[in-house]
């Protein structure tokens, strides 16, 4: 671990100021950042501890939505009565992740920014374009069971590993961001994470010094909300494939089908064409296959992770079957 | 006074059963349990030591070659750095179990990626770790090191080979035959406590607190590695947070801390990181196993073949003993067994949780299930029809044999649905539900052991041996054995373990600790009883002791008359080992559900029935079985070491990505103990317990996956991708 300067921010302005420092990083729950610092994958010179900035609140918004502070813990969010009542997919996605102990420390902002679990990224004695631009991609011809089948590039085939953001993508939530110069901006969750392209070191759209202040959920849409996570063991494992689904039906046809996918790409995957294909149609195996065809149109495996392509199709069948039964 | 017992004959006297205290077998809680759960039991790295420096190992980033230069100056000016130790005596691998000599040294010669090459010592752990990451090392790399077992011509392990009769002919003539190949992936012991040591050097003597399983061998290994006389070395391992084979031999932390302490003349602590534990201690070899079974129309085996390919580093003698129980578990006159070892440059392969049967039995029992299905008979019945009278290769009698009872009683308790399996009989929503079973077998081992038992003048007792308790309950059962023999409440028996100042025990490994060191305690207590009987004026076999008194009402203190009385028990296995085949036997039954969409498998319930000699403590024995069955679940469904195909490094080297079962994967497990006394296993009629629980259990799960979903899978672990690939279309 490289020695670093630690500063506790009391206000957002404080935090913004610390974040102006060279190689400064925010630390929230620390459940991801500390691990990576010990491995020397992350080597900040300065840490801005934002735990006391006062961003932990979960509050109603004027339009009936919900604003979840960046420092609200995953546990607090998952058990919040409004989240459970109005956004159950979010509650389920969070509870499908990590362990109780980790969720007690993990925060909204930290969860969105958690880094890939790619083995080569986590090992500084191996090449990785994300960690060390230009050093090569260790996973490409290596062990790539966890890796992406959608939207990858020749530079990086890593996945975004989280669960919460998949639900946020299905819910079409927004991320509130505060710049080190005090400016504020809002980015849809669906646009928050990047594809690797030829800038694999870039996980998301945050600019240096920027801090996430909250995630905002639109007014509740109801419907049947499911989160399905496929994994080898039943807890404490990242998703091989996951699906967040918000589905409504009327008169035997889908009237809403907002789906987002985890474990497949460098970001939670959302393809508006899937909802278009489903809405107005009655559930059937053929229809589900058509949705899967759209999802997997450009899917490409890398040997070890080829299985994710049929697995995504089958999981989509399972989710749509269950959701249409529950919604009917 | 030392009393020696070499067991050459079966002992059917079952002396422990004549005793009057009534604590043998009692489900007493572990005596050190409270200290452990309240954090007051110190583990190796937790001793407070004044002026202790911290060491962090530097590991190689090439697979094979030479370290040509270590630029110590690159880190010596970093904050807190004290020294870079690159002594030629540093070990590059852990010692194999019972090696009794230093493992490979000369760290500049690299033979696997991640091999320790130096130690950076600093004032704080953080400084040491940072410097270790910055140390500049130059290498001369030797390209082309073989990394996969298929890449080389393997060596036959001749001692394992059996050619008996004509298997090919038996296969050709058989009414039913099976010729299948299973694979298993590498496993890691994955003990909770990382390997750690604190070494102190007083200019003459070396004292090391370490996390080790077999101090009786480790002291010799360490003395050999650092070049000291054994009398100048002391090892202490009072509490060990799990070993599972990975702490049988001395490891890199112990030797590097010792050399650093000797060089710097101050205490040095070395704690391996989780990644280092996984990458530079031990792996269980992956295996490829071909099984051939030839049977007549009634399912009686006429031929039996088991050939296995395993791997290890050049220079290592250990070859995963896959065939160990295959030699005797089932009948079949025509036999073909062979073990081959491929020399490859992945990390050291060694003993990991039940070496041999842990992976051999799942393959064999998977093949037996295929055969039962071919023939169309109940898999339990197929096993029952093939239990041999005697060892089918050597003709030796079995010391005791409870397989049939375990199969029958286990089936009964589980509610086994007798009859041939008809896959896909039950679906609940998305889940196919089915059951499977397998036999369990694990050879019984014992080793020489010494223990001193002292009756104190105040009527309490003290047991001393350098035996370790690796979390299994050794402290507790030794108090029970001594308490039973001497007529004392176990609470009045203090057990002092894990210090090489005490008589040499057997060490903990191969499930042999309880039977071996328990026998040494028994021998010492028998000698004490003889002296007490003499003083009481009766024969030893007439002496009844309970609650500190003889049957005539004399107290122990009266007989001792103000003096302590000590005897050292020395137990040795003797010729009996070559007169009998001794093994633990059992049966597993599992119910699983397999998701028809995703191929995920979850275990609903599982039962293990075991016959393993005398049960010394029903609680600790049951815990051992539950632990073993839990490892079976891991071996069946999730555990796999993954190695990079280009440099052979272990990629999933932490517990987030090396998937041992979590609580939610482990349902209620039922354990049925079929009590027996094995007269040849040990003077206390006990056999090994711990490992048996994982020797075959994975097959019960794999066979249940077939029964549930129709997916017949030949590769463990049966992860969703493999289940889906084998699952018939709906
Ligand atoms: C063993 C293990 C298993 C796990 N399993 C799962 C799982 O199954 N599913 C899952 O979704 N997650 C899983 N996680 C990941 C876990 O959810 C994340 O570690 C956690 O959410 C990170 O939150 P944190 O507050 O601790 O972030 P930190 O570790 O404090 O920070 C993580 C990153 O976010 C940045 N950051 C934090 N807050 C802000 C902010 N407000 N603005 C800008 N940047 C910020 C930090 O600078 C850092 O780069 C697992 C983690 C572990 C260790
Ligand atoms: S996949 Fe991405 S994160 Fe992994 S090694 Fe390649 S570049 Fe690095």
Query: How would you characterize the largest beta sheet of chain A?
Result: 5 strands, antiparallel
Looking at the structure, what is the overall shape of chain B? globular
| Shape, per Cα inertia axes of chain A | globular
| Class by alpha and beta content of chain B | alpha+beta
**Order of SSEs of chain A, N→C?**
EHEHEEEHHHHHHEEHEEEEHHH
Helix content of chain B: 10-25%
Largest beta sheet: strand ordering of chain A: 4-5-8-6-7
Sketch the major β-sheet of chain B.
7 strands, mixed
Lateral strand order in the biggest sheet of chain B: 4-6-2-14-11-12-13
Which regions of chain B are unreliable across 5 or more consecutive residues at pLDDT < 50? none
Low-confidence stretches of chain A: none
Element layout with pairings:
The complex is a heterodimer of chains A (328) and B (730).
Chain A: E1 5-8, H1 12-18, E2 24-27, H2 33-38, E3 46-49, E4 58-60, E5 66-69, H3 74-79, H4 81-86, H5 88-95, H6 100-105, H7 108-113, H8 164-170, E6 174-178, E7 184-188, H9 189-192, E8 211-217, E9 224-230, E10 241-250, E11 253-262, H10 272-278, H11 285-296, H12 308-327
Parallel strand pairs in A: 1-3, 2-3
Antiparallel strand pairs in A: 4-5, 5-8, 6-7, 6-8, 9-10, 10-11
Chain B: E1 2-6, H1 33-37, E2 53-59, E3 65-71, H2 73-76, E4 81-85, E5 109-110, E6 116-122, H3 125-134, E7 136-141, E8 155-156, E9 162-164, H4 167-173, E10 176-184, E11 196-201, E12 206-210, H5 215-226, E13 233-236, H6 252-264, E14 268-271, H7 274-280, E15 287-295, E16 301-312, E17 334-343, H8 357-375, H9 379-384, H10 403-414, E18 426-428, E19 431-443, E20 449-455, E21 461-464, H11 474-486, E22 493-496, H12 513-536, E23 545-546, E24 549-550, H13 556-560, E25 565-572, E26 583-595, E27 601-611, H14 618-637, E28 669-673, H15 697-709, H16 720-726
Parallel strand pairs in B: 1-25, 2-14, 12-13, 16-17, 21-22, 27-28
Antiparallel strand pairs in B: 2-6, 3-5, 3-7, 4-6, 8-17, 9-17, 10-15, 11-12, 11-14, 15-16, 18-19, 19-26, 20-21, 20-25, 23-24, 26-27
Helix pairs in contact in B: 8-15, 11-12, 14-15
């Amino acid at each position: 671990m490289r020695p670093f300067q630690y500063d506790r921010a009391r206000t957002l302005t404080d935090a913004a100021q610390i974040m102006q420092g060279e190689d400064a990083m925010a630390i929230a729950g620390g459940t991801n950042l500390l691990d990576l610092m010990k491995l020397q994958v992350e080597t900040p010179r300065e840490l801005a501890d934002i735990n006391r900035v006062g961003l932990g609140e979960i509050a109603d918004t004027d339009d009936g939505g919900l604003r979840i502070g960046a420092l609200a813990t995953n546990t607090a969010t998952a058990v919040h009565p409004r989240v459970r009542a109005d956004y159950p997919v979010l509650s389920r996605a969070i509870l499908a992740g990590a362990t109780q102990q980790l969720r007690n420390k993990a925060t909204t902002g930290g969860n969105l920014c958690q880094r890939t679990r790619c083995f080569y990224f986590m090992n500084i004695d191996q090449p990785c374009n994300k960690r060390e631009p230009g050093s090569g991609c260790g996973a490409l011809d290596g062990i790539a069971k966890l890796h992406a089948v959608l939207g990858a590039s020749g530079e990086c085939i890593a996945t975004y590993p989280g669960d919460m953001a998949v639900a946020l993508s299905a819910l079409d939530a927004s991320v509130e961001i505060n710049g080190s110069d005090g400016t504020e901006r809002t980015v849809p969750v669906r646009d928050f994470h990047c594809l690797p392209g030829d800038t694999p070191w870039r996980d998301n759209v945050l600019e240096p010094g920027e801090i996430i202040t909250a995630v905002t959920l639109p007014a509740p849409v109801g419907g049947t909300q499911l989160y399905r996570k496929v994994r080898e063991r039943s807890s404490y494992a990242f998703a091989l494939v996951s699906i967040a689904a918000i589905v409504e039906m009327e008169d035997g046809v889908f009237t809403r089908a907002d789906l987002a996918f985890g474990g497949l790409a460098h970001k939670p995957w959302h393809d508006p064409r899937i909802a278009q294909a489903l809405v107005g149609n009655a559930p059937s195996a053929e229809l589900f296959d058509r949705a899967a065809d759209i999802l997997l149109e450009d899917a490409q495996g890398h040997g070890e992770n080829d299985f994710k392509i049929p697995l995504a199709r089958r999981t989509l069948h399972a989710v749509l079957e269950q959701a249409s039964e529950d919604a009917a | 006074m030392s009393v020696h017992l070499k067991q050459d004959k079966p002992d059917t006297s079952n002396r422990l059963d004549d005793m009057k205290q009534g604590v043998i077998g009692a489900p007493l809680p572990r005596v050190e349990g409270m200290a452990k759960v309240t954090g007051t039991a110190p583990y190796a790295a937790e001793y407070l030591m004044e002026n202790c420096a911290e060491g962090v190992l530097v590991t190689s980033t090439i697979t094979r070659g030479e370290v040509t230069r270590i630029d110590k100056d690159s880190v010596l000016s970093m904050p807190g750095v004290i020294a870079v130790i690159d002594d030629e005596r540093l070990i590059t691998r852990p010692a194999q179990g019972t090696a009794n000599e230093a493992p490979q040294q000369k760290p500049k010669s690299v033979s696997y990626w991640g091999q320790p090459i130096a130690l950076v010592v600093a004032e704080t752990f953080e400084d040491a770790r940072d410097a270790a990451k910055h140390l500049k090392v130059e290498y001369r790399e030797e390209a082309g090191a073989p990394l996969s077992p298929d890449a080389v011509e393997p060596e036959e392990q001749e001692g394992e080979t059996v050619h008996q009769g004509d298997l090919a002919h038996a296969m050709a003539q058989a009414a039913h035959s099976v010729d299948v190949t299973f694979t298993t992936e590498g496993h890691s012991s994955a003990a909770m406590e990382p390997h750690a040591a604190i070494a102190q050097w007083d200019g003459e003597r070396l004292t090391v607190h370490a996390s080790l399983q077999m101090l009786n061998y480790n002291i010799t290994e360490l003395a050999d590695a650092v070049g000291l006389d054994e009398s100048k070395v002391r090892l202490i391992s009072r509490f060990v947070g799990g070993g599972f084979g990975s702490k049988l031999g001395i490891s890199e932390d112990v030797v590097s801390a010792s050399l650093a302490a000797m060089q710097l003349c101050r205490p040095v602590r070395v704690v391996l990181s989780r990644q280092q534990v996984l990458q530079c201690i031990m792996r269980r070899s992956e295996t490829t196993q071909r099984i051939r079974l030839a049977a007549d129309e009634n399912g009686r085996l006429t031929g039996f073949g088991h050939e296995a390919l395993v791997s290890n580093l050049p220079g290592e003698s250990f070859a995963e003993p896959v065939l160990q129980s295959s030699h005797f578990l089932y009948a079949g006159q025509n036999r073909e067994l062979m073990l081959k070892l491929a020399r490859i440059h992945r990390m050291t392969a060694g003993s990991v949780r039940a070496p041999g049967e842990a992976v051999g039995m799942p393959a064999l029992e998977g093949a037996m299930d295929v055969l039962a299905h071919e023939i169309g008979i109940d898999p339990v019945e197929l096993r029952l029809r093939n239990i041999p009278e005697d060892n089918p290769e050597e003709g030796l009698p079995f010391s005791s044999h409870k397989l049939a009872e375990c199969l029958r009683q286990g089936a009964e308790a589980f509610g086994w649905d007798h009859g041939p399996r008809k896959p896909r009989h039950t679906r609940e929503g998305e889940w196919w539900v089915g059951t499977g079973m397998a036999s369990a077998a694990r050879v019984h081992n014992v080793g020489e052991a010494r223990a001193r038992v002292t009756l104190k003048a105040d009527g309490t007792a003290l047991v001393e041996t350098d035996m370790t308790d690796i979390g299994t309950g050794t402290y507790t059962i030794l108090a029970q054995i001594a308490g039973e023999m001497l007529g004392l409440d176990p609470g009045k028996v203090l057990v002092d373990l894990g210090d090489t100042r005490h008589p040499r025990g057997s060490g903990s490994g191969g499930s042999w600790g309880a039977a071996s060191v328990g026998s040494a305690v028994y021998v010492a207590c028998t000698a004490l009883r003889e002296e007490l009987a003499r003083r009481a004026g009766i024969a030893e076999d007439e002496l009844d002791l309970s609650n500190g008194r003889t049957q005539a009402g004399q107290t122990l203190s009266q007989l001792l008359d103000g003096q302590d009385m000590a005897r050292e028990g020395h137990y040795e296995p003797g010729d009996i080992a070559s007169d009998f085949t001794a093994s633990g036997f059992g049966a597993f039954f599992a119910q699983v559900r397999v998701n028809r969409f995703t191929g995920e498998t979850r275990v609903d319930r599982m039962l293990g029935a075991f016959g393993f000699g005398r049960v010394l403590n029903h609680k600790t024995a049951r815990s051992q079985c539950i632990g073993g069955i839990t490892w079976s679940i891991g071996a069946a469904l999730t555990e796999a070491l993954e190695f990079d195909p280009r440099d052979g490094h272990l990629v999933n080297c932490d517990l987030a990505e090396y998937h041992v079962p979590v609580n939610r994967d482990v349902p209620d497990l039922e354990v049925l103990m079929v009590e027996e006394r094995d007269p040849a296993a040990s003077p206390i009629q006990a056999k090994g317990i711990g490992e048996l629980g994982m020797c075959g259990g994975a097959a019960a799960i794999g066979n249940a996956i077939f029964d549930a979903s129709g997916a017949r899978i030949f590769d463990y672990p049966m992860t969703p991708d493999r289940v889906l690939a084998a699952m018939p279309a709906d």
